[in-house]
């Protein structure tokens, strides 16, 4: 019941963000402020709190690294094959990218934290680090190849490595490796700040929702939704089970791969020649559908693991 309430609350917060934008309360400047708080403060706090609460040996594993890499590459390959017959390169590039590029950071880690606790959240942080590098490299390559736009892969990967969430992950793992402990009061404050990551992220996502009349491509939209929220978690489950990952890794991995399309894919589409209207709609649709599908995924994981 708690999980159902949490997922319904996610939908409500998305609606609040979208409504606030519609009536003019959530202006672009205000959205940027909330986005900055979520991205540079709340989400890093959540990562730091989760990683420092676990011994390093409990967080890092070869099976996790192999599982994420194999599952991510398999998802990219399937997305490419599924959309290969789309004749419009602007649409094909966006549909391909948005079928695998997951919202690992803003939504994935907070949802894992709510559903499965600190150990799974720490594992989710590692999945974010590994998966982001693969996703960014693939997304820039796919978009620039299909649209012919110029892009700097080196610059994008550099941005990932300097991402505040990734830097916080490294810091948290370093503290854990050194056997240090965070004093109770600061640890509690950091944990409470981390608790705000999901609602703030959902407000921002809701405020970015735009759907323009005449841009609906039902077949493409249905395919992106199916691959993103159904096929990807199925791939992750199969891969992590096959590599012999433990329950926390399986849970974190499958939930992270079940996340909707990342909002950043819209930015990539705009910058690299993809169809921005299709990109916006895919973000909206996968986010809304994933709220329902996540309930099924989490219930299944709880029963299986």
TrEMBL record:
Q: Provide the GO biological process annotations.
A: transmembrane transport
- Membrane topology term: Multi-pass membrane protein
Alphabetically sorted, this entry's keywords are: Cell membrane, Membrane, Transmembrane, Transmembrane helix, Transport
List, alphabetically, the GO terms of the cellular component aspect.
plasma membrane
Source species, domain of life: Archaea
Membrane-spanning parts: 64-82, 103-120, 126-153, 160-180, 200-218, 225-244, 250-269, 281-304
Is this entry keyworded tRNA processing? no
Compartment(s) of residence: Cell membrane
Q: What is its main location?
A: membrane
Question: What family is this?
Answer: Belongs to the auxin efflux carrier (TC 2.A.69) family.
Which PANTHER family does the entry mention? AUXIN EFFLUX CARRIER FAMILY PROTEIN, TRANSPORTER AUXIN EFFLUX CARRIER EC FAMILY
Q: What is this protein called?
A: Putative permease
Taxonomic placement: Archaea, Methanobacteriati, Methanobacteriota, Stenosarchaea group, Halobacteria
């Amino acid at each position: 019941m708690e999980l159902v309430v949490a997922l319904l609350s996610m939908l409500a917060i998305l609606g609040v963000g979208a409504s606030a934008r519609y009536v003019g309360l959530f202006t672009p400047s205000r959205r940027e402020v909330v986005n900055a708080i979520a991205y540079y403060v709340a989400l890093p706090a959540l990562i730091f709190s989760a990683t420092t609460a676990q011994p390093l040996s409990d967080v890092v594993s070869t099976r996790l690294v192999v599982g994420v890499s194999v599952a991510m590459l398999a998802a990219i390959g399937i997305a490419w094959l599924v959309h290969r017959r789309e004749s419009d390169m602007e649409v094909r590039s966006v549909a391909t990218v948005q079928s695998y590029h997951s919202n690992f950071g803003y939504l994935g880690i907070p949802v894992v934290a709510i559903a499965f606790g600190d150990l799974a959240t720490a594992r989710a942080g590692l999945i974010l680090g590994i998966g982001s590098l693969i996703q960014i490299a693939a997304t820039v390559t796919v978009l620039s190849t299909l649209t012919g736009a110029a892009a700097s892969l080196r610059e994008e990967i550099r941005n990932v490595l300097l991402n505040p969430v990734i830097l916080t992950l490294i810091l948290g793992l370093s503290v854990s490796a050194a056997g240090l402990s965070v004093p109770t009061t600061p640890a509690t404050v950091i944990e409470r700040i981390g608790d705000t990551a999901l609602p703030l992220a959902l407000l921002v996502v809701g405020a970015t929702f735009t759907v323009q009349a005449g841009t609906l491509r039902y077949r493409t939209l249905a395919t992106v939704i199916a691959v993103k929220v159904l096929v990807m978690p199925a791939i992750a489950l199969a891969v992590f089970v096959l590599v012999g990952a433990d329950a926390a890794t399986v849970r974190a991995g499958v939930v992270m791969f079940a996340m909707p399309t990342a909002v950043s894919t819209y930015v990539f589409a705009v910058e690299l020649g993809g169809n921005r209207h299709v990109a916006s709609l895919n973000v909206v649709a996968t986010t809304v559908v994933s709220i329902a599908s996540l309930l099924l995924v989490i219930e299944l994981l709880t029963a299986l693991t």
